[in-house]
Structures are given as C-alpha cells and as structure tokens.
Design brief:
The structure is a single chain. It contains 5 helices and 4 strands; from the N terminus they run H-E-H-H-E-E-H-H-E. It is an alpha+beta fold and 142 residues long. It has one domain (2-141). Strands 1, 2, 3 and 4 form a 4-stranded antiparallel beta sheet that branches. Helix 1 (2-11) crosses helix 3 (59-69). The longest helix has 18 residues, at 88-105. The two termini are 18 Å apart.
C-alpha cells in the first residue's frame, strides 16, 4: 500500500476507488455459522496473493492511511450492498464465492459449511431475507 501510494503521489494523479470490501457483513435471518463462515472468509481475504499478506477487510483503512501519509487529502465513505429477496441472483453468486473461498481455508468442516450454504441459498429469495456486504469508497486528492 505504501509503495502504491508513493507511486500514485509521484504521478500527480488523484485517486478514487469504490467497493473495497471492509468485512462488515450481516445476514437476516441469522444462522449459527454466519460469524464463523465470515471470519474464515476474512482470513481467506488476507492470504498472500503474491505480494505478501493481503490486507483483506482492513484494505480500505490501510490504503487511506498510506495515502494520507504521502500528502493526500482523503475522504472515505461506506457503501454497503443491502441485498433483499429481489436481489437473489446476486446473493447466490456472492454466497458461492464465499463458500469457494472458505473451502480453500479449511477452517470450517465441509459438512458445516455446506449446511450453511444450503440454508443461505434457500433463504436468498425469501420474504424478509437480507444480506449486507460492507464496502468502503475512497477519494484521495491533493
């Protein structure tokens, strides 16, 4: 992040990014595995992607800090996705991605993870169901 912020500053460019995952997730109705699954997902987001350990859900805060340190004025704002029953196709894709990531970690027993996924997928289009996936947007200017 520090190298990126320094290179960006050297270029003289302003910077804007949206939808940086921030780890603030919520499901309704709740399931007993929600917290465990999302904790494992966050751990997956912090795995080394070839540049050293990734910041995962701390990425927006780390990037904002790095940009401030090189002289940018930084504004951040949360922009969570609040997905309702009408958004079931998007919920399903997000859930499948979460499951694939968590499977790679091995932190949740396959049976428990698949039970959670089955429940979440069954609830995706049900009246009153909701899935919130947190994101943070960043604007950095001189």
């Amino acid at each position: 992040m520090k190298r990126f912020a320094g290179a960006l500053r050297a270029s003289g460019a302003d910077f804007y990014t949206v939808l940086t995952y921030n780890g603030q997730d919520e499901f309704s109705p709740p399931h007993p595995f929600d917290e465990s699954v999302m904790r494992a997902f966050d751990m997956h987001q912090q795995r080394d992607k070839g540049f050293g350990p990734a910041a995962g859900p701390r990425a927006a805060a780390a990037l904002a800090k790095a940009l401030k340190e090189v002289g940018y004025a930084v504004a951040t704002g949360d922009s969570p996705w609040v997905l309702k029953p009408a958004d079931a196709p998007l919920k399903l894709e997000l859930l499948r991605g979460i499951v694939r990531a968590v499977e790679e970690t091995g932190f949740i027993a396959e049976k428990g993870l698949h039970s959670w996924a089955f429940y979440r997928e069954a609830m995706a289009g049900e009246k009153g169901s909701r899935m919130i996936t947190g994101h943070t947007d960043i604007l950095a200017t001189f």
